[in-house]
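Q: For a teaching session next week I want to show students how multiple molecules come together into a single three-dimensional assembly. I've collected the sequence lines for a complex. Could you give me the predicted structure tokens for the whole thing so I can convert them for display?
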Amino acid sequence: KQEVTQIPAALSVPEGENLVLNCSFTDSAIYNLQWFRQDPGKGLTSLLLIQSSQREQTSGRLNASLDKSSGRSTLYIAASQPGDSATYLCAVRFQNNQFYFGTGTSLTVIP
Amino acid sequence: NAGVMQNPRHLVRRRGQEARLRCSPMKGHSHVYWYRQLPEEGLKFMVYLQKENIIDESGMPKERFSAEFPKEGPSILRIQQVVRGDSAAYFCASSPPGGSGANVLTFGAGSRLTVL
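A: Of course. Below is the structure for the complete assembly, covering every listed component.
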């Protein structure tokens, strides 16, 4: 069964800290993994896409890594800001073309 | 290039009425996915469609819910005889055809259904 798990479920850090969010998945036969951000009451905004052949992707203060063999991805946020407060979701596209979501990590950055 | 368009953004229905939610995928995208998000919960997959075909509806409740993606026009998620438990945000996402790892999943802003 294909499953995606995210830990921690919630995280609270002071402004300026670097932090890591984790995503794990049960089947290494994937096309890609995508990290999203969701603000309360809003839709999902795509942050980074890592293809199965890639190891990492970077965008500004965000860096996502992928270790397909161990079924893990991490999202690293450098120098966190209050505006980073949101729920972060990872979605894995398995080779049945289906996207599976983790339950998300709710991040609060304290000014 | 407009993104994924969902309408209505907000819909209020009384118990027993029907709700119709529409989703127009991004230009060039032929795969559509519907997800439901209950308050304080994660995204739950409902159905995956391609033009005129339902590929996977394993997440759809067996009764009252149906989805279609006709050859012309938007994808429609239809909920008949709504109940209070149907109150949720319904998100549509689309992706290009094919099995490329570069294919990004793009979301609409969601339709928020409230059942009174």
